[in-house]
Amino acid sequence: MITARAAASFEPVGRSVATARSFVRDTLQGWGFADIVDDAVVLTSELVTNAVVHAGTHAEVLCLRTEDGVRIEVADRYPEREVPLQSSTATMGSPDREGGRGLQLCAALATRWGVDYTPTHKNVWFQLDLPERPVGTRSAGPALPADLLPLADGRVRVAVLQVDRKGGISAWNEDAEELFGYPAADVIGKPLTELAAWPHTPGTGTGIAEALRLSRWEGTYGIRGADGRVAQVYASHLRVRDTGGEPSTVCLLVRDHERAVLQSPPRMPATDQSPASDGQSTDPFEVFIGSPAPDDLDGLLQRTVERARDMLDADSAFLLLATDDETELEVRASTGLPSARQRFARVPVEAGPGRYGSARMPAVHDDLAAVPGAVPLLTGTGMRSVVTVPLKVEGRLTGSLGVAAEAPGRYTNEEALRLQFAADRIALAVESARLGELERLRRGSLSFLVEASDLLAGTLDRDQTLALMAQMTVPTLATWCAVYTIADQASEPYLSYVLHEDEELIDGIKSLLSKISPPDPVPTPGARVWTTPAEVAHQAALRSSMRSLGLSGGSAHQVTSGIGPTLATASAVGGETVVLPLVARNRVIGMLTLGKPTDEHFRQEILELAEDLSRRAALALDNARLYSERTAISQSLQRSLLPPGLPHIDGVEVEVIYRAAGEGNEVGGDFYDLFPIGNGAYGFAIGDVCGTGPNAAAVTGLARHALRLLAREGLSGPAVLERLNSAILDEGDRSRFLTLLYGELRPQEDGSAELKVVCAGHPLPLRLRQDGTVTAAAEPQPLLGVIEDLDLYEETVTLDPGDVLLCVTDGVTERREGTRMLGDDGLADVLTTCTGLTAGAVAARIMRAVERFASDAPSDDMAILAMRVPGIHRDV
């Protein structure tokens, strides 16, 4: 039986959908049908959209009230557009498609639904039945067949335990023993925290201890049973106190899948009729937003714009939040507008002179076509009339709320007052949620910057620093990133690194940026917008599309294959692009470019975080540059101190192994040399300057070059070393003492080799004979760089075929492991095992023995010079 009816007709325009929603909501709330109003509004919105938007006809909505519920009919004037049969679910379309969702919602939400056809109309209807509730119940569900009821494992057990103020279990019933396997005697007095497996992340949420102190708590956690397994339970806690005032917590627990036994029903949305029942006043915020309100800022703002749109029967609504300095407003939520294009876009607070150009005052625009650009946010959207009101907290501007319609002259000061009243109700809640979001963002920003600083400080490699800069910004701060570097003030910016979150788009963006002029290296801090990439990419995509259609000459077939990457690149860089200078030591050394895809903007907080990152990255990049330059200089100078190469000597094998101590050092205090003197003679030397590093390397260079020069003058070995001693002493405070083994080598016609050696304070050379005996090949003499008058002499040594002469620095003999040292005797023992080996094999075996002697890295320079007169030898 129909007890009431309400009908309305709506024009085929977009705003009719919002008007129809308001009509149905007001009608059902007036009838007291709050339980089904949300479902009815959703279904009406979808069906009216089908009529006025997709079918393009008037929509006639009829609401019929019955004793059991409501029947709503939506009729359009397009009967030719057939609706799929209810049984043909496959033809209704996917939930992800735009079309067909209204029919799927009818099938999902309505008690019954159907469609009637006449020669002039198509009528889609649905029936929503009221839930059956006995009088006085708070909440009730429908009556269900037995086979649809939830399963329970035999008897439903409710564990009841009581926890004292210290968290210890003071009561434990029989059902608790059955559920978890613990006798009461085993758990009484134990803290509940020992049994509870709480789903808690440190620093967030509520822990078990906090939950037990709340007056009421309800939720899910785990209890570790006597068998060691964790059972998921649904719990209801109630905080009580005994007659003596002692507080405790009563906990009711059931298996999680039996939670309906304890779970409280969800709160129903507040309605205008609710306060009358209990005599309490309704919160104006909940009247506008609804209850429960969204927990997050984005959800709250989106709910706000939707309710504002419906309240004034608008086609669109938007909400902007003010920056900290109140100079700009940032779009944070909208409905009925291209939100992807508008989100995070920024507009000035003071757009022009007068009250209509300021967001600090309410404003009503009768026709935006008469004042182009009055509301920049609505340019190109088709909106004609608009009303905007400020959101203020304690007199400070925190945002702006606006609604707009496609028709001109829709709003008056009366609507502005209604909207301002709503804005005043929500301003404090919005500001509180915004401050909470800012606090979370700041904590995240600090954590991000700390991690970024650690990563940047962990490398001095320029290329790795560039890669880290890009990888830290993508995708955390931006969708794509490009880094330009500037070598010096006279150089142009160079595109050094490009990164996109989709690796397939990197080459396209790199190609695009390489074809356009880089941004100007302006040292002004802060992010500035760079529109060139988006403009050039758009033009390139347009040209490619025209060529593919044959509109610009040439063969469409030849260019079609290149359209995809061009369009993809245009979409990737089509959003907002900003440039941040990389300034280090008062000089612009590069630029960090961040970009968004088509129609997207950067949040102000993200730009501020990117600015902080750019300062740290600039210093790290400049440090890497300086380190690379100095390393290159150092390596070049060090290489100049080493011999260019070993000469080939007929009848003598020669091998050298050289290791400088310290990271990045190629030359230290040890040195070697082998060079031709003339008349078939060769000079050789191996020495050790006191100390390591650059100062020792300087004396190394002096010694090596002086030896070559003096030896080629025809001087004898002692004379060469005496003059070198004088040159070292002439260095004054920079002089360092030097141990040196110098000799002259002359191969003989009989296959032997004659050596004349002078050992000035150096470890003695060792001679290995073919029979395996090892003897010293020289006598010790004074080292160089200590006293002026030296009385040196040379000794003659003949190497027979198969003999080896081994010369080393003290880094070899003084190799240590704890208190043990390799020493001269240890070196001689290793050399005795080298009989018959080539010079290269002898040097390699000595080096392996030194490395294996101790596990730590060598702390002293090492040089090994092995010379061997070939003879009969066996293979290694």
From TrEMBL:
CDD domains: HATPase_RsbW-like, PAS. Residues 160-190 form the PAS domain. Residues 263-283 are annotated as: Disordered. It holds the Pfam family GAF_2. Signal peptide: none annotated. Transmembrane segments: none annotated. GO terms for biological process: regulation of DNA-templated transcription. It comes from the Bacteria. PROSITE patterns: PAS. Keywords: Hydrolase. PANTHER family: STAGE II SPORULATION PROTEIN E, STAGE II SPORULATION PROTEIN E-RELATED. This is PAS domain-containing protein.
